Amino acid sequence: MASLLPKPRPLASFLADERFSEEAKALLRGAAAETTRLGHRFISGEHLLIALIASNGPTGQIFREAGAMAEQARSRVEFIVPHDPPFLAAKEMTVSPRLIALLHDAAETVEGLETPVEAPDLALALLRDREGIPHRVLDECHVNTRALTQRLHLLQGK
Questions:
Q1: Any idea where the domains of the chain sit in the sequence?
Q2: What is the mean pLDDT of the chain?
Q3: What residues form DSSP beta bridges with 34?
Q4: Among 72, 71, 81, which Cα is nearest to 39's?
């Protein structure tokens, strides 16, 4: 699978992408902050998950109502993903290949609707990746991902 993933890209390229709403871009910036806080080199799905859970919008509320808590998710990520040594710190924030694939998935999902990628689209893209760390974190936090997915689809209006 690794050979099918895109190469890492700077966060700035997604922040300039008009396919993403301002809310989605704010979540990506929040994920970047989590990446720094946790001492990781790449912005990954687990960082976006924490940003989604901590967000003040309806998507964050749905995550919290489903039992997800940002501190608990952060603790699980710290346990699962080791810290990178400080000398490996990136000069600019870079998005991981797997998260790039998920962001493209979210963009493709809304492409025909002529609407930008919103927070529920990002959340649903994370949930579709059952092999990823975000799904593992939610499972370990005892979040019912099936019910969460249904609630996010309702929020999304589909």
A1: 2-156
A2: 89
A3: none
A4: 81
3 state DSSP class of 102: helix
Instruction: Tell me the CA distances in angstroms from 36 to 8, 31, 41, one per residue in order.
Output: 17, 9, 8
Q: What is the pTM of this model?
A: 0.90
Give yes or no for a contact between 96 and 34, defined as CB atoms under 8 angstroms apart: no
- pLDDT tens sequence across 56-111: 999 999 999 999 999 999 999 998 887 766 555 556 789 999 999 999 999 998 88
| Cα dihedral 76, 81, 82, 88 sign | negative
Enter the tokens of residue 5.
């993933």
What single-letter amino acid sits at 15? L
Superfamily of domain 2-156: Clp, N-terminal domain (1.10.1780.10)
